[in-house]
Amino acid sequence: MPINGSVSTRRRDVVPMWRDRDRPDRSDDPMQDDRPLDINTATAAELDAVSALKGHGFEIVRYRKERGGFTDLRQLDEVPGLTGKADGIAAALTVGDA
Question: What residue ranges do the domains of the chain occupy?
Answer without folding.
Answer: 36-98
